Amino acid sequence: MVQAGGHNSLGSDPNPTHMNKFACRCAIVASIISIIFGYDTGVMSGAQIFIREDLKLNDTRIEVLVGILNLFALVGSLTAGKTSDVIGRRYTIALSSLIFLVGSVLMGYGPNYAVLMVGRCVAGVGVGFALMIAPVYSAEISPASHRGFLTSLPELCISLGILLGYVSNYFLGKLTLKLGWRLMLGIAAIPSLVLAFGIMKMPESPRWLVMQGRLEEAKKIMVLVSNTEQEAEERFRDILTAAEIDGDSAVKAVGGGSVKKNQSKSVWRELLIKPRPAVRLILIAAVGIHFFEHATGIEAVVLYSPKIFKKAGVVSKDKLLLATVGVGVTKAVFIILATFLLDKVGRRKLLLTSTGGMFLALTSLAVSLTMVQRYGRLAWALSLSIVSTYAFVAFFSIGLGPITWVYSSEIFPFRLRAQGVSICVAVNRIMNATVSMSFLSITEAISTGGTFFLFAGLAVVAWWFFFVMLPETKGLPLEDMEKLFGGGDGEGLEIQTKRVNS
């Protein structure tokens, strides 16, 4: 049964360009899972300082503790795609929140390193589910005119979660050593439990329902998430066309019949073994943007900002945590700004501007940290390193951060979307784990400044990749994305990119 939440499906907003409030509520609730993930990421930035002291851990064990979450997120993301295709997007979000609940309880209990690691691994599986399902669900219920805004909400919620984690570090860090970090990690169990029940009041993705042959339910929900019945009819017809369901079958199904699901081809075969040329380009573009999101160093700044500021010359523990809160505030503010720009400026312009700014900020940070290492504490270098760190986070958050999830969740054909995004999340988590588990070791080998010079070089490569491979998707229906990459009408990526940008 569709939970309309009081929304009048027959008297929808007559303004077709106005954001549909019901679709917005659905995206917000689905994105709560991202707040929990963001909190878990942000809180570990400060909690590791107290865990190291309490459990007497060295750098290697801390790196493994921080990074292991991403390796298990890889398992979660690869499982989540198939799971969401089988049980639906809504139940997958509920499952993800329950996994987070178990992981948070184990970490909050954490009597020793082994139990803490088990909790971190369980939470990692939940992260994999959350990263895949929240943007996919949001994209599938959103109209094209506001898809950038609604699909970027999960990334915004990750940033808010990270900020909450930093704030939690600052205040709970004042408690006793044994209690403080355990509360930091365990408190995430509360919103996990709330979400597990709250998501069940939201409707299922209409595109998933069509994929299951449940057309009558899909059409009812499409009316709820559209501003007019005409818009709902057009969106529903586009989905049927993409699903290769003919009009007679659709009329029969909406009238109470059913439609057979198209299971003639394996999704994995269509994605990886024998993809169509357009699907191959889509996969390269989606995997590439996820690779560069973390290859350019954001995880190093989010997780190890206290260590970076300490290298720059900040020594007080309170000041280190307070400076880290500034990173969280910057990230949240600029993600909020990005959500309002995505559907106005477009993905491509924001992405190229963001990556160019990241290169400049990384270079500036690398120079300042190198000067501190070579000549000792310098007031100007300390100030420049803090400003550069905030600038890097700001440029990342206004472009590459949210666009990675918006872009990859909207360009796959809908039959391939869940498992296509799961591949992207797997690559995302591999790169996240690579950076988070190797950052301290690399800084020991080539210095902290040298490490950020490396990230700056990768930002240049990322900018070139985005410029060549990623066309503009602003305002296009999800069902038209394959044509943008040369599918259907035989037009190539270059031609389509020029057409959209003109």
UniProtKB/TrEMBL annotation:
Main location: membrane
Transmembrane residue ranges: 22-42, 62-79, 91-109, 115-137, 149-167, 179-199, 278-300, 320-343, 350-372, 378-408, 452-471
Keywords in alphabetical order: Membrane, Sugar transport, Symport, Transmembrane, Transmembrane helix, Transport
Domain spans labelled Major facilitator superfamily (MFS) profile: 26-474
Topology versus the membrane: Multi-pass membrane protein
GO-annotated cellular components: membrane
Entry-linked InterPro entries: MFS_dom, MFS_sugar_transport-like, MFS_trans_sf, PLT1-6, STP/PLT_plant, Sugar/inositol_transpt, Sugar_transporter_CS
Record PROSITE patterns: MFS, SUGAR_TRANSPORT_1, SUGAR_TRANSPORT_2
Subcellular location: Membrane
GO molecular function: carbohydrate:proton symporter activity
Entry's family note: Belongs to the major facilitator superfamily. Sugar transporter (TC 2.A.1.1) family.
The protein, known as: Major facilitator superfamily (MFS) profile domain-containing protein
